[in-house]
Amino acid sequence: MKKSILASAVAVATLGMAANVFAATPEGELTIWIGGDKGYNGLAEVGKKFEADTGVVVNVAFNDDVPGRFQQAAATGGGPDIVIWAHDRFGDWVDSGLIQAIEPSAEKMAEVEDFAWQATTVDGAIYGYPVAVEAVGLIYNKALVPNPPTTWEEIPALDAKLQEQGKHAILWDYNNTYFTWPLFAANGGYIFDYKDGAFDTTNTGVNNEGSKIAATLIHSLIKGGNMPAGADYGVMDAAFSKGDVAMVINGPWSWGNYESNGIDFGVTYIPTVQGNASKPMVGVLSAAVSSASSNKDLATEFLENYLVTVDGLKMVDADKPLGAVAHKEFMQVLSADTNIAATFANAQAGEPMPNVAAMGKFWSAMETALKNITGDRQTVDEALDTAAKRIVK
Predict the structure, then answer these.
(1) Of these four, 53, 211, 333, 354, which has the most CB atoms within 10 Å of its CB?
(2) pTM of the predicted structure, to 2 decimals
């Protein structure tokens, strides 16, 4: 556990060491919880600006188990005023009454990408201010493929050419639905039907025609010798880091490892499937106001006018890079980095990950289906039809 630190006049501490971590924040103060891998010192600097302007003290606490601790604390009326985490937990928190619906100003709505607001919407109401966005993309080794393919149909021929050098064209953690889903969504596969700001968890498209096209494609790449059977994230990561494979489907968290291994890489769109664009799942780091907070107006003021602004996001990004962001003006600044720009483009092309509790059944059923397909234990039809039944059961 990291030691508590002070950032100017604003307290920053680990959740495990903060005094009375489960107690409610006193009126006239704000407490914010954020993950330990994010720019909590930068967030504290935003808090310092808020304190200078309003006299309200802002306390920032960080930990890697923010969701578990927040759920426990907020359920008993304690915890932070603001929690910053990935949007996919919001459905659970709304169902449990832990976070408050918000009403961003029309100006703020216009400043932030529409797809990011969609991610923080549950049953038609908005529950969070979007901060950063994340999506997987095609990461390619420029030395092996200066001009990466734009269609999956090109890959077998490219792979045959690279095999002459002892290399392969592409590999990814194909049994992990998060990485494989962009192919499923390309031709109309969908996790849950989405209409009028809500997901219908009784209606899944994991076994529709578009999904089966994707699963058949993946199976053919393995059977054709373009990818090894039984590959996982570690195998993929090592192969790309060694220069043994030209392209992977992965996210921004992997860039540092590839840079440290001397790989000159770029990021672009995942190839099209039968002419249709691949659509990654999009994660949105978002800030929500706790229902237990006695400082809801102050919390909203902080988020609306201090954090989700160009200046506020710059402070957080300067501490630990946010990657792509939902704020349009600040994203224009960050687009000077072509890989961040490509990540944002992939997010724009993708679809927000559903923020409903039924995702647990989706992940479990699809993992089994993909393993059975790629391991030749079930046909595509059998595996995906079974998965669909499990998901909506």
Answers:
(1) 211
(2) 0.92
